[in-house]
């Protein structure tokens, strides 16, 4: 039996060797990302996930912010590797910034006090689903990506640069672009160590 969904998620990999030679039009990239986030599930249909799509100079500006931030805290003798890594993200075509809107989460906590402690957890799960959905959708369009986490180090600078609402909490950054080098073979632990089936 063919399962196109499983076939799709098998395509998604962490791609670090990227360049700007993307053949997909910007409008299509935007549509892919928006639909992937829009149709991702969230607790109570809260739709707390937010995404900022950075292309062109804005994409490069983000990774300049990351580099400048890290330069201030990474010892100079160790910075070459960091600079190279950040440069590989900057070499891509664009970046998706994933946020969760804390105002939505706080509203749920007020309206459904019984579940108040759960909403931040469910928010993180919703964000993870949205990130995975975008990643898979980009992969199926032939666009490589990886998931990075330079938050909270860059939070203030990002909010200032792109006038991000104060209630939006940065959760991840996804640089994407043309695949220069495919990911290597993926290894999996034995199913017996990971799954239990009871019939």
From TrEMBL:
The alphabetized list of GO BP terms reads:
cellular response to oxidative stress
Q: Which InterPro entries match?
A: Frm2/Hbn1 (IPR033877), Nitroreductase (IPR029479), Nitroreductase-like (IPR000415)
Q: Which terms are listed as keywords in the entry? A: Cytoplasm, Oxidoreductase
Task: Write one Pfam family the protein is assigned to.
Answer: Nitroreductase
Q: Where is the Nitroreductase domain?
A: 9-177
Identify the main location.
cytoplasm
Please give the Gene3D superfamilies that the UniProt record associates with this protein. NADH Oxidase
What are the record's GO terms for cellular component?
cytoplasm
Q: Which GO terms describe its molecular function?
A: oxidoreductase activity
**Where does this polypeptide localize?**
Cytoplasm
Name this polypeptide is given: Nitroreductase family protein
């Amino acid at each position: 039996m063919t399962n196109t969904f499983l076939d799709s998620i098998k395509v998604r990999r962490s791609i670090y060797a990227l360049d700007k030679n993307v053949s997909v039009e910007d409008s299509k990239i935007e549509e892919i990302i928006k639909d992937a986030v829009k149709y991702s599930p969230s607790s109570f249909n809260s739709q707390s996930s937010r995404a900022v799509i950075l292309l062109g100079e804005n994409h490069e500006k983000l990774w300049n912010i990351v580099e400048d931030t890290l330069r201030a805290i990474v010892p100079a003798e160790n910075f070459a590797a960091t600079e190279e890594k950040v440069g590989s993200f900057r070499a891509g075509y664009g970046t998706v910034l994933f946020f969760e809107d804390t105002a939505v989460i706080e509203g749920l906590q007020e309206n459904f006090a019984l579940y108040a402690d759960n909403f931040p957890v469910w928010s993180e799960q919703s964000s993870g689903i949205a990130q995975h959905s975008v990643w898979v959708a980009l992969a199926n369009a032939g666009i490589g990506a990886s998931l990075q986490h330079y938050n909270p180090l860059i939070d203030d600078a990002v909010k200032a640069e792109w006038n991000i609402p104060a209630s939006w909490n940065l959760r991840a950054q996804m640089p994407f672009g043309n695949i220069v080098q495919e990911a290597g073979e993926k290894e999996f632990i034995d199913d017996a160590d990971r799954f239990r089936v009871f019939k």
